[in-house]
Write a structure and sequence with these properties.
The complex is a heterodimer of chains A (about 500) and B (about 425).
Chain A (H helix, E strand, L loop, with lengths): L3 E12 L2 E12 L3 E5 L6 H9 L8 E6 L2 E3 L4 H6 L2 E4 L11 H5 L14 H14 L15 H14 L4 E5 L7 H16 L3 E5 L3 H7 L2 E6 L2 E7 L7 H9 L17 E11 L6 E11 L3 E6 L5 H8 L6 E9 L2 E3 L4 H6 L2 E4 L3 H5 L6 H5 L4 H4 E2 L2 E2 L1 H14 L16 H13 L5 E5 L7 H16 L3 E6 L2 H7 L2 E6 L2 E7 L5 H8 L8
Parallel strand pairs in A: 3-8, 3-9, 6-7, 7-8, 13-20, 13-21, 16-19, 19-20
Antiparallel strand pairs in A: 1-2, 1-4, 4-5, 9-10, 11-12, 11-14, 14-15, 17-18, 21-22
Helix pairs in contact in A: 4-5, 8-18
Chain B lengths: L10 H19 L4 H8 L1 H20 L7 H26 L7 H18 L4 H26 L3 H20 L9 H8 L1 E2 L10 H27 L7 H24 L3 E2 H19 L1 H11 L1 H5 L5 H26 L11 H11 L11 H20 L4 H28 L2
Classes of the chains: A alpha/beta (about 500), B mainly alpha (about 425).
Organism (chain B): Geodermatophilus sabuli
Keywords (chain B): Cell inner membrane, Cell membrane, Membrane, Sugar transport, Transmembrane, Transmembrane helix, Transport
Membrane topology (chain B): Multi-pass membrane protein
């Protein structure tokens, strides 16, 4: 009989309006590296939050058995107490504190009189750093380390807590190849020490290289658990599990009549705003009138950064490359010039970057094109209501009136408000970043219908999405983006989820 | 690829039923239950009006009516006008998510510059006023530059400004007070318009202005209402609408009546009224005003909507400098001179007025009218406690608690709104 350190049985977690996890089962053997993979939004992170107690017992259905005991965690302290430590994708280190201070934060090494014994702490920290293979002084501020080394500090911190089950959420997403290889080596060594690892990852080559088992999650359900020792599980096999076979479609039909080229971007390169690495590397692409073009890429591939750097340099530095709208070169220096040039960008994170949640529909719809409603600086409030009311009807925003507060609408309706805002700027090309993230199936259909209406009116639409069925369902042409480089382009007729996923996970041999 | 979604969620189906949507919208106009809806939906706003009325009534009772006597009502206006002027600028700063700690020092410096020109150099009163405004604008541009273009938090920039401009005041005045101003300068803050139309024991002109103000208020409300109905927006029921105008009209006329029985219409009240109306329009109706709210509500979203955040922030501080200069002129006029310590702690009164008046600590929320009512609550409380002979120390304790409770109420409200999401 297998010795399972962790069993999660029939986990179901519901958010208002969305079932994030439905009857998920996960069994992790003691001392293995267990990978979890699935598309963005499949429910991987939610599952880990359930496990670590971020979502306390009672807020989900199902049972967690850890070390043979049923457990109920009410917070992350409870789970850490029994040796479950989660390392999030966004590292939770304080940049101004030293390595040792970070390692023992909240878990300070006290000496006499309850004061912190720094000699002891630094000595222990040095020991931990050796065990993770990090050659740094414990007194070095964490902010001076690169992301790869910070990741190792996080692992050292986990080890200081006597970790038995280590959960890593996309540990290599922000790392370069060398750092990734080093990290994977470390995971193997931890396995030899008997520490169990759960690793969430998109990088299939890494999964097949280090994991013992992989569990595939899709749409909030467990699809299958594959044993990688048998040797017959290929990356293609995992991809098939991730994308599934059910292409029962939720996409409205559309006849495609692409016209002249509207947007052309040439040799576009963008650097990270603070770190010394390229986020987008020599990207070339075009979008034509009446055409929906998709950009497929995994999280961290540089999709959003690409879009935002085009949108008036709203991201990045040292941006080089040329862009043309209707054949005329444009050089927008800020967002307002980009809007004037006919570019609109609807963000993937509407709550933080798209909407003023404390204001009403009317004020949000007019926000990007107030000038159109104003004469000599005075806004025509009645005209504004008329415009907003028009969009509320045509977009079918379900709200009692345009004076309803946007923060109280559902995700789908909020997204319609975002779209209304950008349509009112009357753009030539509309960039939609994850247009259906976090909204339900019915609202998704409506968003697709709106997109179809736009291209029928001759607009050019660029859709960024990590949901491949969505791209296959609505696009005419798809580019794949991997590690900042465009790795492929194909008409939708030739594209399959498998060949897209392959290009999206393509390693950076081109970059080297 | 086939459609499998039921037709109910298709937009075409929705547009077909659209005309029917008009019916419920119209029904809203005549609803009788909307007194409660109006109160609850605007609790943040209506709460402070209720609080204001309660506080006025409380002090009227505690002082046996003295606090509402003609002379005292006039006094409140004269005494607190400069705080209200500062609060107009401050509420805009706060809506955008900043703070300005330097306005007290700016009041002192602008008043000092004006006093040096008028008293020491013998220049006419208007030259002193213009110089003060020029200094205010320059200070605003200075602070706006650091906040908007260098990106230093306003708290730090204006904390530095508080020290900087206080020091410059001492320099300009050579550490001594200057007084008195010629009488024309004094009229700015202590002058009255009266006797223009005569009257028997009261000033008819003041009453006329009060009546004109009420008529103007009724007219503009009526016009807004018509437009809203035309655009099929919900409005309050007609009886409620009339009741609101009658109530506001009664308060304004009672106020004018009291002024008319004292010394007439204070000039500074006219200045204040013009500023309130102008800034009410600027914040609500102009692109600039909208962008201020957008920046305070969600900075990232405003930036990605093409708002030129830096320029807007810059002009917010220039405007604050301008209003601080106006307040500096009014204050120096009222105190009939310039003192090195003038305007001490004014910034805190102005900030308190904004928060009591419903501005949100996190930005994005607040109104000029709210800040005015907040300022008046502070004014009526201070004045009432002075009339009652309550010790300065107790006054300070009470004011502190009122500010704390007002913001606690705001935070509580927001949390409640958050949970209903």
């Amino acid at each position: 009989m297998d010795d399972h350190i962790l069993e999660m049985r029939s986990i179901t977690k519901t958010f208002p309006g969305v079932k994030a996890l439905s009857d998920v089962n996960l069994q992790v053997r003691r001392g293995e590296i267990h990978a979890i993979c699935g598309e963005n939004g499949a429910g991987k992170s939610t599952l880990m939050k359930v496990l670590s107690g971020v979502y306390p017992a009672g807020s989900y259905d199902g049972e967690i058995v850890y070390d043979g005991q049923p457990v109920r965690f009410n917070g992350i302290r409870d789970s850490e107490h029994v040796g479950i430590v989660i390392i999030h994708q966004e590292l939770a280190l304080v940049p101004y504190l030293s390595i040792a201070e970070n390692i023992f934060l909240g878990n300070e090494r006290r000496g006499r009189g309850g004061l912190i014994d720094w000699n002891k702490a630094n000595a222990e920290a040095a020991e931990l750093l050796r065990s993770v293979g990090l050659e740094e002084y414990p007194v070095t501020p964490v902010g001076q380390l690169g992301v790869g080394k910070q990741q190792l500090v996080e692992i050292a911190k986990a080890l200081s807590k006597d970790v038995k089950l280590l959960i890593l959420d996309e540990p290599t997403a922000a790392l370069n190849d060398n750092d990734s290889a080093h990290l994977l080596d470390l995971l193997r060594r931890l396995r030899e020490r008997g520490i169990t690892c759960i690793m969430i990852s998109h990088k299939l080559n890494e999964i097949t290289a280090v994991s013992d088992n992989v569990t595939v999650i899709r749409d909030g359900r467990t699809v299958e658990t594959l044993n990688l020792h048998a040797g017959e599980v290929t990356q293609e096999r995992i991809i098939r599990g991730m994308v599934g076979r059910d292409l029962e479609s939720y996409y409205p039909e559309r006849e495609s009549h692409p016209g002249e080229e509207v947007l052309r971007v040439e040799d576009w390169t963008v650097w990270h705003p603070t770190q010394d690495r390229k986020i987008v590397d020599g990207a070339n692409f075009t979008v034509r009138a009446g055409e929906v073009v998709g950009i497929a890429g995994l999280m961290g591939a540089g999709r959003t950064e690409l879009a935002m750097s085009i949108f008036g340099r709203a991201y990045g530095r040292n941006i080089t490359g040329r862009m043309f709208v209707h054949g005329k070169e444009i050089r927008p220096r800020n967002v307002s010039e980009a809007i004037d040039a006919g570019i609109a960008y609807a963000t993937e994170d509407r709550k933080h970057y798209g909407l003023n949640l404390i204001e009403d529909i009317r004020r949000n719809v007019s926000a990007a094109a107030l000038g159109k409603l104003a004469t000599r600086g005075f806004v025509n409030g009645n005209e504004e209501i008329k415009v907003a009311e028009g969009y509320r009807k045509s977009m079918n925003v379900k709200a009692p009136s345009v004076t309803s507060i946007v923060g109280k609408l559902s995700g789908g309706n909020q997204q319609k408000v975002v779209l209304s805002k950008w349509l009112y700027t009357d753009p030539e090309v509309l960039i939609l970043d994850e247009p259906t993230r976090g909204i339900d199936v019915g609202a998704k259909y409506e968003i697709y219908t709106i997109i179809n209406r736009l291209v029928a009116d001759g607009k050019a639409v660029l859709v960024i999405s990590s949901e491949l069925p969505e791209l296959l369902g609505i696009c005419d042409r798809i580019y794949t983006l991997s590690a900042g480089r465009i790795t492929g382009e194909m008409p939708v007729g030739q594209a399959t989820q498998e060949n897209l996923m392959e290009l999206m996970t393509k390693e950076k041999e081109l970059a080297a | 690829m086939t459609r499998t979604v039921p037709p109910a969620s298709e937009p075409e189906a929705q547009t077909a039923t659209a005309p029917k949507d008009v019916a419920p919208a119209v029904a809203l106009h005549t609803g009788t239950s909307d007194v409660r809806a109006l109160l609850t939906s605007n609790l943040r706003q209506s709460g402070i009006y209720v609080a204001f009325v309660v506080i006025v009534a409380l002090f009227a009772i505690l002082t046996d009516g003295t606090s509402l006597s003609p002379g005292n009502v006039t006094n409140i206006v004269l005494q607190y006008s400069y705080i209200l002027i500062l609060a107009i600028g401050m509420v805009i700063v706060i809506i955008a998510g900043h703070i300005d700690l330097s306005v007290g020092s700016v009041v002192a410096l602008t008043g000092a510059v004006s006093a040096v020109l008028v008293i020491r150099q013998g220049m006419p009163w208007w030259a002193g006023a213009l110089a003060a405004i020029a200094v205010g604008l320059a200070i605003g541009a200075w602070q706006g530059f650091w906040v908007a273009y260098v990106g230093i938090p306003a708290f730090i920039v204006t904390l530095a400004g508080m020290l900087l401009f206080r020091g410059l005041t001492l320099q300009v005045l050579d550490n001594i007070s200057l007084s008195p101003f010629p009488s024309e300068y004094g009229r700015i803050a202590s002058g009255f318009l009266n006797g223009l139309l005569g009257g028997n024991g009261y000033d008819a002109f003041t009453l006329l202005i009060g009546a004109v103000a009420v008529a103007g208020y009724a007219f503009s409300n009526f016009r807004t209402r018509i437009a809203r109905i035309k655009y099929q927006q919900p409005v309050e029921s007609f009886p409620l609408f009339v009741a609101k105008i009658v109530a506001v009209g009664a308060v304004v006329m009672a106020f004018a009546w009291q002024l008319a029985h004292a010394r007439g219409l204070p000039i500074v009240l006219i200045v204040l009224a013009v500023l309130i109306i102008a800034y009410g329009v600027i914040t609500k109706r102009t692109v600039f005003g909208r962008q201020v709210y957008a920046i305070g509500g969600n900075l990232a979203a405003a930036t990605l909507s093409g708002v030129k955040v830096r320029a807007v922030n810059f002009w917010i501080f220039v405007n604050m400098g301008f209003l601080a200069a106006v307040a500096g002129i009014v204050f120096s006029s009222r105190s009939n001179g310039a003192q090195p310590s003038a305007g001490n702690m004014f910034e805190l009164d102005a900030i308190a007025a904004c928060f009591i008046g419903g501005a949100a600590v996190t930005g994005g929320v607040g109104t000029v009218v709210g800040a005015m009512v907040g300022g008046l609550i502070m004014a009526v409380m201070s004045n009432g406690m002075q009339l009652m002979g309550i010790d300065q120390s107790i006054q300070s304790v009470v004011k502190g608690l009122v500010l704390l409770l007002a913001v606690a109420f705001d935070v509580y409200n927001k949390r409640r709104a958050g949970t209903s999401r």
